[in-house]
Amino acid sequence: MLSKIMLETWVSKIRTNDPKQVASLYHDDGLLLGTFSDIERKGYDLILEYFENLLKSKVDVEIVTQHNHETESLVTNSGLYNFIVDGKTVNARFSFVFIKTGNDWKILSHHSSILPESH
Q1: How many structural domains are present in the chain?
Q2: pTM to 2 decimal places
């Protein structure tokens, strides 16, 4: 499934701890609503800045659940994942929208937020 491969690619780039490798996955007009930021990050420079700050720490990601939808030019993948930042686990939820650009796929939109506590 294409959406699983793209999500796994994102996770593998996070594990490199190289902000440029992660930011390169995003579309030029990509939007990131990051887990650890209170601003909308539109475009490469702001997305790169986010990952430069995040990856100052040792970060890993484990996928908990994912729900996919695929068309010829658009793919979505949403669910739950855990960030492990310097050994501390942060439970979060995510939505990725991938768009086909030529022969490549880029992240057009990525929303991630801390999972609220159950009541």
Answers
A1: 1
A2: 0.94
